[in-house]
Amino acid sequence: MTITGKAAVLVDDFKFEIREYPAPPVEDDGILVKVSACGLCGSDLHVWRGEIKAHNYILGHELTGRVHSMGKKVKTDSHGNSLKEGDRVIFTYFTPCHRCYHCTRGEFTNCLYNFQGMKSVKEYPYAHGGYAEYYYIKPGTFVFKVETKLSDEALTPINCAAGTVMEGIERAQLRPGDAVVVQGAGGLGLYAVAAARERGAGLIISIDGQAPRLELAKKVGADYTININDLPNAEDRIARVKELVGYRTGADAVVEVVGYPAVIPEGLEMLRPGGRYIEIGCIFKGSFVNVDFNRILHGIKYIVPVSYYSPWLLPAAVRMLERGSPLANLGSHTFSLDNINEAFKKSEWKDTKTEVLRSIVKP
Ligand SMILES: [Zn+2]
Ligand SMILES: [Zn+2]
Q1: Which CATH number does 4-159+331-362 carry?
Q2: How confident is the model over 272-310, as pLDDT tens digits?
Q3: Which of the pair, 352 or 178, is modelled with greater confidence?
Q4: Where are the domains of the chain?
Q5: I need a surface site. Which of 10, 40, 163, 224 has the fewest CB within 10 A?
Q6: What is the maximum span of the chain, computed from C-alpha positions, in angstroms?
Q7: Residue 115's pLDDT is what?
Q8: Distance in Å, CA 157 to ligand 1 centroid
Q9: Ligand nearest to the CA of 358
Q10: Measured in angstroms, how far is the CA atom of residue 103 from the centroid of ligand 2?
Q11: Buried residues in 150-163 as b, exposed as e (16+ CB within 10 A)
Q12: pTM tops 0.90, yes or no
């Protein structure tokens, strides 16, 4: 019997439509998930605004769910834990092909064929997005069973926000005692603060324009915050960072999770010579910025670009949350799938103020 499920399809900029689709047939190595919750990520907002065109797509990639049905070859998760229908799972939102040059080198994040989402609903296997009742985990995807007291809401950002910033911290080889600046205190920014703290950072500075977010940044581990409304000039913010990091001469690492390239030159100037700029936010095309590479060369600064993450970081993120992080309660607003248009309107922060920290859509 074919089952059908509701899905929110982005039919135009700023507009979702709820439609009913048959769930795809499950391949021998595939898993069909009944979605429990799907978070609203900053990148979803970029798409919703039309900054990335994705009409006729089901959005949503920060999701978790329960195994609804699985192919006959699936017996375990990616760690070898037995898997059965009804188990709670988290999974990478990308599926490496395991057959390209990059995959043979273990560089799954560079696989060119790997993104599960951002495809039209007309393309197999149709269930590409988390704003839906069903989501199809393609063969080759990394899946982890979770047995935890954490809520579904807490698990949703793990396969995007948490995984990505943890990858950044990992790639930048942060050392105990390092000074870290995080530009942006939205979902990614808060996770970046927590991940830097987890990694043993000695000093963490969070920068944002919204006071409630900065308060939260302090709760999850920031030692200092800079509200850009108090210091509207970039030069003053750079000077403040240099003052706060003291003997270090600049930050050891700066994480960019604002999502707009205008903040990059400022972030680079906050670094010490030899410091690392972890670039995560500028996910859309046309992110141009004017940077004098002479400033990079002198006092060599490293740019560490991050998209996607290593699969092993997902269970690590679960354990980080289980240790009592306030991030486990980051989801501030919950919406039903039918109210997804409202969820996006309420979550919009560009050129406006929002009380929403993280919206969760529950089908
Ligand atoms: Zn995301
Ligand atoms: Zn590949």
Answers
A1: 3.90.180.10
A2: 999 999 999 998 889 999 999 999 998 899 999 998 999
A3: 178
A4: 4-159+331-362, 164-305
A5: 224
A6: 68
A7: 63
A8: 7
A9: 1
A10: 4
A11: bbbbbbbbbbbbbb
A12: yes
